[in-house]
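Re: the request from the purification team.
They wanted to know what the chain is likely to look like in 3D before they choose a buffer screen. I agreed to run a prediction and write the result into the notebook, where they can find it.
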Amino acid sequence: MAVVKQDDRSADAGEATREYEAELAALRSDRNRWRGEAQNLAEQFQNTPTIDRSYLLTKGTMRQRQTYHMLARELKAAEIERRRELGQKYLAEQALAPETSKLVVLQKDGFASVDLSRHPLVQAAVKECRDTYQEAIDSGKELLSKDSLEFVGDAGWPFIASGGVYKLATSPLLLAPVIRYFGMMPIMTGFGLLSARNEEFYPHSSQRLHFDPEDRTQLKVFIYVTDVDETSGPFMAVPAEDSAVLYNNPDFRLARQDDSAVREGSIRTFTGKAGTAIFCDTCRCLHAGARPGDKKRLMLSIEYNMPTHLNSKLWEGDPTPERRSRTLKVRDYNLNEYTEALLAHPKPV
């Protein structure tokens, strides 16, 4: 029978202890690694199996946002096709205004501007906006504001379906270029009058370059309600092809950017008289505005989206979107197939 010396047993025990500690370290490492993986997955898709659109709106990477957009296009293929056909029918049937009948927003630019100051629809909308602003000032009530912007009026109140703003927003004058850009009849998700608080610079505001979060593409139409020059805090945008340095970065998350983030000389500044219209894809083009200046700037903003936007339902029975369409407050009792598709919500009763 073999005799085991005490020091041999001690050596074996020491080796076993080291092996055990190594196994524990490996387990801790694996545990921490898998915990990290779980946290990454939780960040990407919170509340699985439902898709957390509020997360995508504020924190999603460009890769995650693109994946959602592709999913939405697949699930809404029939609706998109219906809107393509409706858009072509609209362009063929409607009497297009000469000011925008040939206007095309190029995909490489993502924006275009045109002087519509002499068009009666624009003049009526500008007057309604100015009257609304003056009434708000005369009331003495404090306007709802967020950093560099004050919100003067919104879809449904005070801008009702019989008013000039709604008639402009639903007219061929604006819809024709939007339909050409999307290739389909869009959804109008909101419109409102904005007053620039351009007395000072707000570092976390839309005065810095940013993308809008609603989708991978959307078109906003901005109508100047006041004359805007370099001292009024004019709207600014970077062409889509130059904004692609961030837009095509799969790991980029939406955040305010300094002007140095883009190619020098690529920022376009839009000045013009009241009635100037700017069409801009604010999801593809970095943009900013209302920077400090000496003059007041009032601007009407109208939002057009595709059925893939993050505030819309993906399927019947899908949980209510995080944010309801702002046009739900519009009570249009004379809907036709075009305005019904444009508003994309039930008829008023």
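For the purification team: The chain has one domain: 63-343.
Please add any questions underneath this entry.
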